[in-house]
Structure formats: structure tokens, C-alpha cells
Recover the amino acids of this structure.
């Protein structure tokens, strides 16, 4: 990348100013020739061969100006595009204004940039997604929670965190095998994903634990949401052929904590984890808020 930037600097830096000087010098050729003739000859006495030379000079100057503009302008556009791409702006596209070889070159670079943008978006998606369940991963969850807390400080809206754990998940793994355990995790993740709003963030917290970030939601409403998803999972029956035995019944325990002034990402996570522990301690398949534990 450094070599690419160096080559751009050597070849194209200052080209616009050089181009302007070149155009000016070319346009001066016929003007100087015309001035010379008018100084030394009256207009009617201009020799024929001088007049022919003047005409040819004008034609050459005009052709030279047109050719330079036609060739250099695409180079300038391509150079500016390359500088933006080099800075990481892969949304840039070259405007195709012609159908010749230069137009084909612009098409090629646009196609390359389009593919690069798609690859970068895919890499970003993979970097924030849990491979097994398709939900967000812990890294994205933690970063998003920090962003939401910053917005809460600014706009003063309520925020809740709901942490859930699949009850007796290890026992299911021991009974049906880890492959069935993975299938359970994927189907539960799909079920949870369909139960939340667009503004909510669902992430796999680790193992059999998932967590919801619930913007604009006070703790009391977060508890209502937790109870709703608890009942949803409790009543879910896995479809035949899904690879999960029909006798397998899944329940979850949920802990909810609302943001309080002075909370950090770590403190609200600890509070929701504490509420989850109380829900499991009191018999599992329950939803509990942090306020109920203090």
C-alpha cells in the first residue's frame, strides 16, 4: 500500500497545474504566429505560405488541446478515485461518460471496487457474528452496549439488559449429544430473533447464554419482555425432522436489569447476571428483575 501511494505521488502529483500550463502554451502557438504576421505584414499582404502555416498552426493547437484534454481528464479522474480508494473509501465509483477503451477501463475498476466493497462488508459481518447461531457475538454486544449507554447519557431514555440461560443445557448435551445441543442453540436463537424489535440487539453471550440490549425500555417493561420470551420458549415444539428429539423440552431463565445513573457496561451486565442467578436459584424457567433481588 505504501508503494502504491508513492507511485501515485511520483506520477500524478501536480498534474493539474502542469496540464493548465501545457494548454496555455499550446493556445499561444497560433496567437504568437498571428502577432508575428500582423507586425511584419499588412493583413492583405500576408504571404500565402505564411497564411497556410498560420492555419496549420491553429489546427495543430486545437487538435493538441482536444487530444490532451481527452486523454488527461480521465487520468485525473482515475487518480483522484485511486487516492480515495487508498484512503479506504470503497464506495467511490468512476462516472462512465464514454464507450471507448477508457470507458471499458472505468467499468473494470468499478467492478473491482464493487467486489472489494462486498468483500469488506462480508468480512465485517463475519467479525461481529456468532458463527453457530447467526446472532451478534460478544465483541459486538459489548461495543453496542457502550454506545447505547453513551446515548442514554445524552438523550436520557431508559435502557434495559435481559440475560438468559438455557435451563439444564449440559444435561441435554449429555443425553442427546453435542450435535443436538448445537441444533437447539440455533433454533432458540432463531426463535429469539423473531421476538425482538428492530432496535433491540440480540447476542450470544457465551455457551448457552444470550443477551438482549433493549433501548427505550425501563426495567419493568424489560421484565414483561423477559416473561414473554420465557413463555415462548417453554411452549415451543421443535419441528419433526429438525434433528432434535420430540421429547426434548427447552426452558430458559432470564435476568433483567435497568440502567441507573452512574452504571457502566460492566455494572449493568453484573446486575442482569445477578438477576439471572436468582431466577435459576428459585427453580429455573423464570424471569427475574434486579429490583426484585434487592
Amino acid at each position: 500500500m505504501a508503494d502504491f501511494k508513492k507511485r501515485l505521488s511520483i506520477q500524478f502529483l501536480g498534474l493539474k497545474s502542469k496540464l493548465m500550463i501545457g494548454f496555455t502554451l499550446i493556445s499561444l502557438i497560433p496567437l504568437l504566429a498571428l502577432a508575428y504576421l500582423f507586425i511584419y505584414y499588412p493583413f492583405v499582404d500576408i504571404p500565402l505560405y505564411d497564411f497556410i502555416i498560420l492555419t496549420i498552426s491553429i489546427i495543430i493547437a486545437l487538435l493538441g488541446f482536444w487530444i490532451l484534454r481527452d486523454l488527461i481528464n480521465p487520468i485525473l479522474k482515475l487518480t483522484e478515485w485511486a487516492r480515495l480508494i487508498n484512503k479506504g473509501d470503497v464506495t467511490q465509483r468512476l462516472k462512465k461518460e464514454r464507450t471507448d477503451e477508457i470507458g471499458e477501463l472505468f467499468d473494470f475498476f468499478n467492478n473491482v471496487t464493487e467486489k472489494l466493497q462486498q468483500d469488506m462488508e462480508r468480512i465485517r459481518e463475519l467479525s461481529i457474528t456468532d458463527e453457530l447461531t447467526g446472532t451478534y457475538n460478544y465483541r459486538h454486544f459489548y461495543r453496542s452496549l457502550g454506545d447505547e449507554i453513551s446515548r442514554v447519557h445524552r438523550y436520557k431514555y431508559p435502557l434495559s439488559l435481559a440475560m438468559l440461560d438455557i435451563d439444564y443445557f449440559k444435561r441435554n448435551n449429555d443425553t442427546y449429544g453435542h450435535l443436538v445441543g448445537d441444533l437447539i442453540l440455533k433454533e432458540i436463537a432463531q426463535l429469539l430473533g423473531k421476538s425482538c424489535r428492530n432496535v433491540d440487539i440480540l447476542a450470544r453471550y457465551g455457551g448457552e447464554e444470550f443477551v438482549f440490549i433493549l433501548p427505550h425500555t425501563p426495567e419493568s417493561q424489560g421484565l414483561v419482555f423477559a416473561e414473554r420470551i420465557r413463555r415462548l420458549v417453554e411452549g415451543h415444539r421443535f419441528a419433526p425432522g429438525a434433528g432434535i428429539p420430540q421429547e426434548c423440552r427447552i426452558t430458559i431463565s432470564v435476568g433483567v436489569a435497568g440502567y441507573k445513573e452512574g452504571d457502566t457496561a460492566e455494572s449493568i451486565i453484573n446486575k442482569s447476571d445477578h438477576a439471572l442467578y436468582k431466577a435459576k436459584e428459585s427453580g429455573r424457567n423464570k424471569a427475574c428483575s434486579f429490583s426484585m433481588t434487592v
